[in-house]
Amino acid sequence: MEQKLSVIMATDVVGYSRLMEIDEKGTLSALKKHRQELLDVKVALHHGRIIKLMGDGMLVEFHAVEEAVLCAVEIQREMRTRNTSVRDRQIEFRIGINIGDILFEDGDVYGDGVNVAARIESIAKPGSVAVSASVRDSVGNRLCISFEDAGEQALKNIERPVRIFNVIIDDDTPSKHTSTALRAPPSLNVQDHPAIASNRTLLYVSRFVNFSGDPDQEYFAAGITEDIVAALSRFSGLNVIVRLPRSEPQQNAPATHYTLEGSVRRLGNRVRVNANLTNALHEHIWAEKYDFELVDVFYIQDELSQSIPAALNIKIEEAERHRVLGKSLTALRAHDFYLRGRHLEMSLNPDDVRLAREMFVAAINDDPGYARGYLGLAWLEIHRLKWNERVDLETTLASAFASASKALELSPYDANVHWALGVVHLWRGEAERAIGCYERARELAPNNCDLLAEYCDALGYLGRLEDATRIGELALRLNPSRPDWYLWNIAASKYLSGNYLEALSLLEKMADLGSAYRLLAATYAQLGRLEDARRAASELLKLNPEFSIERYSSRAPYRDKALLARYVEGLRLAGLPE
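Request: output the structure for the sequence above.
Response:
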């Protein structure tokens, strides 16, 4: 029996028995057509998985609540369009969404979460979507979708009353050339937009333009846009909206939102895709071009749906940090305080770390419901262990776990929170739980490069060295402008594999070694370059005068003690203090 927490979407056809009685063949044919052309496509686009078919209905599992709600809304909007051409015997769906446990056994699904989703669907209005309070609270204002509070409802065979919200689906009919993903219209006054109030960065995505002069390429440009939007929506710090704000740049306006535009051009058997990111002042933040052989269209779309979101997530956070650094403390809100803390948290300077802590506490004070303030505090504790500071292991891990758990309570679908919990479990020696947290984080944000690079580090500690190298190299491919610590983590897996020359080659590419002098010293020592090893050890002690081999070896979460022994051997040969 498998049990897990998921987002469950239940659907069925309104008045199915009546429709079958009137025209059985016609109803079955129409339902099959809707399933193949609409429902199956939207479920796949939003990373859902059909777990049960029930005649006129189905159960679908999603990992992210936003994906489930968007999928449901897009299905109902498209069904409205399809039904305009049908005079009688229109097919309408009811959809209900809930967050809860699913149990898989003997090819069937069970669980309270499934039962509640099915009961919510049964009381949804025809052609509409109803959700539980847990879904409404998880979505918040991030999707610019409105909800109507239907109050507490007594559901059949459910002991407790369940508070239900109806999703308000607008009456606008999308044109056939416009992507329906995340269609809710943005506010033109960006500073008053819910995304700003909810501490999320606003990103507008325009439909990629077909410059090929070939109308048959329109589907390709539209497909790229939808894939990129779906991937971007999985980053917890971004509120992604399709459509451009039609406003002229204002010289004194704060850069409170970003816009992604792109184009597709076919050149013989090659395709060139250009992507361009600007801020609210229309200043260029990032641009890239991608060239492909036109062999497999789906491969191209998959590559772009990984590479572009990965780059944007990094570039937008960098731009946001620099924007916030130019603001006075009195003008900062929770998200701004968090970004300032992030700017300082990786520093080896104690004064910077103290200021980072103050920024994270200020974020919590400004908005106690802002999860990333607690997340920042968790990372500060984690770094104290990683930097081999003189701290009590159990106390530090307990503090990190408490902060990360609070963040998880406030934001259960933030990949960064699961990532931080994975690190805590790793350093507690709870390997399986650590892997579970990392994998959950990857489900929520598969193209988060920093997460992948950190997972590389964890897999190295757990002795899965080939996996560590593979994941680390994927992070490098997705983020060509990678920070130095990506290289450090891959180099560590190379060192532990005995590939000292490959480890050294990676370390020598780092512009600022910082605490990586520890690995560099051990690598030089294993290669017999003892003078270089001692110089690297000396640089490490300048940064961390209290470093000791005993403290490192007693804490570091190596699952295979033979790998730890290999590392310690290099540290000793380099002359680092016991």
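Residues 297-325 form the longest helix (29 residues).
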